[in-house]
Amino acid sequence: MPQDLSFADVQAAAQRIAKGAVRTPLMTCADLDRRVGAEVFLKCENLQRVGAFKYRGAANALAMMDGAALKRGVATHSSGNHAAALARVGRERGAAVTVVMPHDVPPVKRNAVAGYGARIVLCEPTMAARQAALEAVVAETGAEVVHPYEDYRVMAGQGTAALEMMSDLPDLDLVLAPIGGGGLMSGTAVVARQLRPKCKLYGVEPAGADDALRSLRAGVVTPIAKPDTIADGLRATVGRNTLPILIRTLDDIVTVDDDAIVRAMRYLWERVKLVVEPSAAVPLAALFEGRVPCNGRRIGIILSGGNVDLDALPWTKK
């Protein structure tokens, strides 16, 4: 298994997953450009298989496993999108999948995981509970862990979204992506630093789950006991393997509150006609809130996913 992440790893991942992953489109919106005073390009990973970029990492990880490992099965913990991705890819590769999920994940994500045939083990919504439950599953089954962001195979797969984006747009000035565990941002940053070293790179996370920002400042992983944000996909603690990559590649990490996330999410639904989940709207919220300097720049944003509980939209009055 790789012990670090390189540009060559992302290139190899792109070849492995080419037949399975969707080359998602880039979209623009004239109103959005006027609003922020820049050219904004949206990489629509909400249109990826399983509705999120997570398919890329899961596909690459399982493509690198041999037949014996696949026969033993795979396991992970996830709030939803990585779980669905691993479940789908596991079904495609004939591997049994067990997923540890917090009991409070949106039903749409839990149902998707079950629909792909994975076994679900529910736990309390804390990282400690996730890890303990996962360790128990591995002890019981002998399954190989495919971690949602600490696995370099997964990081390499996630980086293929940025590889596509920057191949289509080689002159980007600024790239934004959301940060939960940091896998997507790590892969994105490695690609950007290789293809356009002077491009500015910002990770964005919810103010109620700002462990990545705290960790970046401290230089060590600094977890939050119970993250509080509507962006359920970004509640994970930044990883021990992802943090060093973020420290050496990012210009900064910025945060936005939940109200700003909801406004950006609604804008993408109403004006850009894209169904996205709260986590995907976080980078756009940073632009709207002036958290990142953007005037006159060419900006790439990775819209991470579009799995939404339609019975609990955040702007619907209860």
Silhouette = globular
Average residue pLDDT: 95
Order of helices and strands: HEHEHHEHEHEHEHEHEHHEHHE
Percent in strands:
15-25%
What is the count of helical runs? 13
Rg: 18 Å
Distance between termini?
A: 48 Å
CATH class of the largest domain: Alpha Beta
| Domain unit count | 2
Largest sheet: 6 strands, mixed
Structural class: alpha/beta
Low-confidence segments, given as residue ranges, are none
Helix content: 40-55%
Question: Which CATH architecture of the largest domain is right?
Answer: 3-Layer(aba) Sandwich
> What is CATH's topology name of the largest domain?
Rossmann fold
Please provide the count of β strands. 10
Give the gist of this structure.
The chain is α/β, with parallel strands linked by helices.
Characteristic key phrases:
single chain, 318 residues, alpha/beta, Rossmann fold, 2 domains, six-stranded mixed beta sheet, four-stranded parallel beta sheet, 15% strand
Could you please describe the fold and organization of this structure?
This protein is an alpha/beta fold and 318 residues long. The chain folds into two domains: 7-52 and 155-303, Rossmann fold (3-Layer(aba) Sandwich), CATH 3.40.50; 55-145, Rossmann fold. Helix content is 44%, strand content 15%. It has 13 helices and ten strands. It has helices at 7-17, 30-36, 54-63, 67-72, 81-93, 107-115, 127-141, 152-168, 183-195, 211-218, 242-249, 258-270, 278-288, and strands at residues 26-27, 39-44, 74-77, 97-102, 119-123, 144-145, 174-178, 200-206, 252-256, 298-303. The strands form two sheets. Strands 1-2-10-7-8-9 form a six-stranded mixed β-sheet, with helices on both faces. Helix 5 (81-93) links the parallel strand 3 and strand 4. Helix 3 (54-63) packs across helix 8 and helix 8 crosses helix 9 (183-195). The longest helix has 17 residues, at 152-168. The radius of gyration is 18 Å and the shape is globular. The model has no long low-confidence stretch (mean pLDDT 95).
